[in-house]
């Protein structure tokens, strides 16, 4: 990093701040008077800025789902793309991705992906594990893992195919977007809307940063309805944080990379595209601290459905059936009486991609490690391993704090197709299916025997 870049980062860091709320109509300016008052598109903007609208929904969408932001920038975004050339990120796949591999259907689990080669930034460090749906029809999702050891300095990116839900697992990252700077660490998430320019760098002492990404092709993530839970608990709107305006005024050779309809393109420009000095609207990036999630659960008996742990949901056209849900399994008290407390055995019309940020997942005694992943596709049975079943079946049912853990799930209505990379990954656990081998016949026809 040269002195110019370092001074820019320092200048941005002094302005690092967030505005609370989910789906709010925000306004913010990095320079006084940069934001027009009383109108969106004045004949001349202050500071010689250009007015531009970024729309996240059709113009005629109902007010409750209509999303747009007005940006006031040094150059209009038409100057942030020149003639495109084809580019290749061979490990980033889009649905439908029906690659040939020899791995048959089954319940699957992986250890973390291998450490990256030297000089791996965010774009080159993404590895697609599964895809679902169809990116061209804007339905479905993809589950990725990332591992990086380098920063995007003069490289920028926007994804026209979907929004990116980033879930760090190791090492904090800085996501500098058109609308401000987000610093996000493990046990936090950030969401970058479809079409929004960004670059990613590492922060902190970790030489390597790792995590997971849900690329959502469908309707954007929103907060789930709470139903009979009522007005409070789960994720609360005030804990979502949107960045204040911050901009880069950098006149150097820069590259803009684009993902569009599953293909990649690159263009070269002579300046930074992160040049928004002020903005207002409701189409925004945000971060959320998973530790602020307020779980609800059984306080007498039985285990409620895991949907009570939904942080965000991307709806489909069918009520109650999500394009994708983001669900977490946070620290919580287990108090249910005469109840098998871990998640029950089940088969599901939804398909589940899981990751572990830290700690131990309560349904697996061993083998599921932080940075690892599992896939239980639609209608494939799964649940606690044999040792977890025996422990939970015989434990004293006193109140127990399930602590120092954070697992999550990307759950979708579509079957998740495995990429060739995931099928042939060296960290695939060939013996995962054996974790249920100890679940032997326990049936005894004698009345009253348990």
Question: How would you characterize the overall build of this protein?
Answer:
The longest helix is centred in the first third of the chain and has 12 residues, at 3-14. With 450 residues, this protein is mainly beta. It has a 9-stranded antiparallel β-sheet with strand order 1-16-20-13-10-15-8-7-28. A 6-stranded antiparallel β-sheet has the order 6-25-24-27-22-21, with no helix packed on it. Helices cover 6% and strands 35% of the residues. Strand 11 (172-177) and strand 12 (180-184) form a beta hairpin.
How many structural units, i.e. domains? 2
Give me the CATH architecture of the largest domain, please.
Sandwich
Structural class: mainly beta
CATH class wording of the largest domain:
Mainly Beta
| CATH-level-4 superfamily name of the largest domain | Jelly Rolls
- Let me know the average pLDDT: 93
Beta-sheet strand percentage? Answer: 25-35%
The geometry reads as: globular
- The DSSP helix count reads 3
Could you give a short account of the major beta sheet? 9 strands, antiparallel
Poorly predicted sequence stretches spanning 5 or more consecutive residues:
1-11
Helix content: under 10%
């Amino acid at each position: 990093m040269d002195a110019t870049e370092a001074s820019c980062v320092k200048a941005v860091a002094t302005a690092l701040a967030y505005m609370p709320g989910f789906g709010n109509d925000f306004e913010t300016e990095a320079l006084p008077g940069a934001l027009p008052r009383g109108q969106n598109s004045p004949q001349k903007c202050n500071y010689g800025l250009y007015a531009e609208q970024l729309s996240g929904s059709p113009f005629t969408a109902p007010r409750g789902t209509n999303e747009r932001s007005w940006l006031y920038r040094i150059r209009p975004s038409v100057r942030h793309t020149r003639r495109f050339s084809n580019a290749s990120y061979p490990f980033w796949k889009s649905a439908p991705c029906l690659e040939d591999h020899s791995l048959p259907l089954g319940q699957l689990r992986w250890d973390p992906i291998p450490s990256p080669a030297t000089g791996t930034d965010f774009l080159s460090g993404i590895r697609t594990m599964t895809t679902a749906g169809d990116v061209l029809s804007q339905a479905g999702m993809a589950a990725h893992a990332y591992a990086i050891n380098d920063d995007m300095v003069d490289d920028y990116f926007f994804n026209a195919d979907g929004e990116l839900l980033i879930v760090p697992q190791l090492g904090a990252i800085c996501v500098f977007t058109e609308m401000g700077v987000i610093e996000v660490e493990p046990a936090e998430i950030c969401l970058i809307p479809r079409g929004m320019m960004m670059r990613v760098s590492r922060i902190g002492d970790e030489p390597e940063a790792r995590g997971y990404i849900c690329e959502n092709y469908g309707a954007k993530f929103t907060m789930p309805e709470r139903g009979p839970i009522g007005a409070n608990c789960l994720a609360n709107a005030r804990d979502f944080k949107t960045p204040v305006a911050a901009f880069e005024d950098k006149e150097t050779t820069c590259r803009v990379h684009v993902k569009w309809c599953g293909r990649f393109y690159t263009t070269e420009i002579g300046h930074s595209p992160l040049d928004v000095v002020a903005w207002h609207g409701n189409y925004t990036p945000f971060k959320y601290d998973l530790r602020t999630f307020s779980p609800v659960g059984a306080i007498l008996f039985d285990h409620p459905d895991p949907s009570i742990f939904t942080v965000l949901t991307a709806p489909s056209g069918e009520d109650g059936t999500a394009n994708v849900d983001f669900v977490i399994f946070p620290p919580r008290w287990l108090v249910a009486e005469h109840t098998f407390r871990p998640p029950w055995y089940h088969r599901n019309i939804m398909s589940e991609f899981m990751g572990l940020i830290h700690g131990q997942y309560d349904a697996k005694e061993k083998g599921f490690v932080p940075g690892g992943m599992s896939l239980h596709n639609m209608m494939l049975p799964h649940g606690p391993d044999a040792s977890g079943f025996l422990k939970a079946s015989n434990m004293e049912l006193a109140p127990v704090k399930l602590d120092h853990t954070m697992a999550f799930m990307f759950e979708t209505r579509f079957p998740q197709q495995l990429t060739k990379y995931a099928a042939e990954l060296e960290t695939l656990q060939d013996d995962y299916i054996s974790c249920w081998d100890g679940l032997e016949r326990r049936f005894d026809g004698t009345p009253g025997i348990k």
